[in-house]
Amino acid sequence: MDKINITNYTPPDRPELMRLLLALQRDYFAENAERQFQELRREKDSVRSFEKYLDEIAEEKESWKILMARNEAGRVVGMIIGSTSEDEELVLGRMGQFEDWFVEPGVRGQGVGLQLYRELEKWFKEKGCQQVCSDTWRGNELSIKAHEKMGFFVSGVKFSKKL
Asked: How far is Cα 42 from Cα 47, in angstroms, rounded to an integer?
């Protein structure tokens, strides 16, 4: 395995981040999510949607973190996006939300995703987070196993239905 460097996202990384976000949606999601769920989450224009998402993150950058994984040659091979929020009704109300996470297929299983997550978790702790939340879709076994390996447990079930 190449040595992997985890770096903070900077605006010049945007094309690479877009490439990974689109791969997450167009390839991984399309290959692994159930057809009904894909139908409900199908976007009109994925590029426009992700551009808007990244613009919103840039506007609220204090509560968002994007990390990039680079191999020894400097090529981006993975990313993770997280955010923080507050729920004043909860005792452990300062939360980190694990938003998006993608590692290229050729480097999966080598600890890249875990390195990304550990760095994000450090940031959550620096921000005073008391818990971390994440979600994935049913049947995403790779994600489910990765979450369990990092100490997550299933804390709810979300249902969807087309009307």
From this structure: 12
